[in-house]
Amino acid sequence: MQRNIQYIFWAVSACMLWGTAFVGGKIGFLYMGPLRLSGLRFIIAGLMLVPLLLVQRVSLKKTLKHWRMILLFSIMQTFLQYGLFFWGLNLVPAATAALVVGGGPLVIAVMAHFFMPDDLLTRRKVFAIFLGIAGVFFIALTKGQMIGEGWSFYGGIILLIVSILIGGGTNIIVAKYLGDLHPVGLTALANLSGGVLLYLFALIVEPAVDNGMPSDFLIALFWLAFISAYGFSVWYTILQKPGVKVGEINVWKFVIPVTGCVLSWAILPGEYPDWSSIIGIVVITVSLLIFQWPIKSTVKV
Question: pTM value?
Answer without folding.
Answer: 0.82
